[in-house]
Amino acid sequence: MLYDNHGRQLRYLRLGVTERCNLRCFYCMPEEGLNFSHRSQILSFEEMERLTRILAEMGINKVRITGGEPFVRKNIMELIENISTIEGVDSVNITTNGTSLIEHLPKLKAIGIDAINLSLDCLDKERFLKITRRDEFDQVMDSFQALMDSGITTKINMVVMEEHNLEDIIPMCELTLQHKVSVRFIEEMPFNGGGKKFTPITWNARQILAHIQGHYPNVEKLTDAESSTSLNYQLPNAKGSFGIIPAYTRTICHSCDRIRLTPKGELKTCLYDGGSFSFRDFMRAGATDEEIRNQFRTLFSNRAKDGFEAQQKSSNPFESMATIGG
Ligand code: SAM
């Protein structure tokens, strides 16, 4: 089993499978995109599967496939299917922008994908274009409908940004009245790859909740799972629920069970740490499975207590969520 130096067991791998994305969300990356790594610098499927298998042997039982946009990576379904058959992996989830999800849904359902997080920051075509700089709103809404029809557990991720989508908070909440979906409001973080100047947010978790309660005073607090990153609620008589993720104010670190591997195979023991070790280079230099296991143990024995400490120790400027694996 893999524990950190604060007694937290690691159970959940977030695997970035590509840095590339077909959207250009202004809060995530610059308009012209990033200086993407050469293909040879990105982990192969075999390397990703090997690290996942080793981590599964160490007690990791949940894997999230993310990126960049997972579905822009060639043959991604092959990787997803292989990961879902690794012994010990009980749950495979995907985070996607939904622009090309529909064609993959039947296969994802057949593989038994447990849940899909759809990133959707607003419910308006014009605002979507401004935020993502791409005209893909209709495709994403079609994906949402297809997800609802498919019965796959679905969450919507909406990053809350003053002057950009505050008017979408209540309509997003109201989606849960008709649909069995969990909408999660995420505090904006500084991981934008230099795409914009980050100013500390005022729309934090508390403010978002107060805003919703202003419209729906009888919001019910739900019980949160032990390692949940979201504080979860429900509108009266809703089919779905909503959650708020204090990603910037970081009040949830005490129960963090996550491991992040970037598309280049760097370990992040915390989203806010600069990236401590290259498992790509380690594997390519011939490391054995046992050496890899020991390296995970060593790195997690020096993990920051929370995102503030990790940020303090980090010398890296805030890279894009696309290269981290959001
Ligand atoms: N392309 C996929 C998608 O759009 O869902 C997966 C990668 S994306 C980086 C993963 C999640 O990170 C998305 O929900 C996105 O909104 C979120 N994200 C990106 N930059 C962020 C930031 N600066 N602050 C908060 N969330 C961010």
UniProtKB/TrEMBL annotation:
InterPro entries: Aldolase_TIM, Elp3/MiaA/NifB-like_rSAM, MoaA, MoaA-like, MoaA_NifB_PqqE_Fe-S-bd_CS, MoaA_twitch, MoCo_biosynth_MoaA/MoaC, rSAM. It is an enzyme of class 4 (lyase). Its cofactor is [4Fe-4S] cluster. It comes from the Bacteria. Its EC number is 4.1.99.22. GO terms for biological process: Mo-molybdopterin cofactor biosynthetic process. The keyword Nucleotide-binding applies. Residues 5-226 form the Radical SAM core domain. GO terms for molecular function: 4 iron, 4 sulfur cluster binding; cyclic pyranopterin monophosphate synthase activity; GTP 3',8'-cyclase activity; GTP binding; metal ion binding. Keywords: 4Fe-4S, GTP-binding, Iron, Iron-sulfur, Lyase, Metal-binding, Molybdenum cofactor biosynthesis, Nucleotide-binding, S-adenosyl-L-methionine. Pfam families: Mob_synth_C, Radical_SAM. It catalyses: GTP + AH2 + S-adenosyl-L-methionine = (8S)-3',8-cyclo-7,8-dihydroguanosine 5'-triphosphate + 5'-deoxyadenosine + L-methionine + A + H(+). Gene3D superfamilies: Aldolase class I (3.20.20.70). This is GTP 3',8-cyclase. It comes from Roseivirga seohaensis subsp. aquiponti.
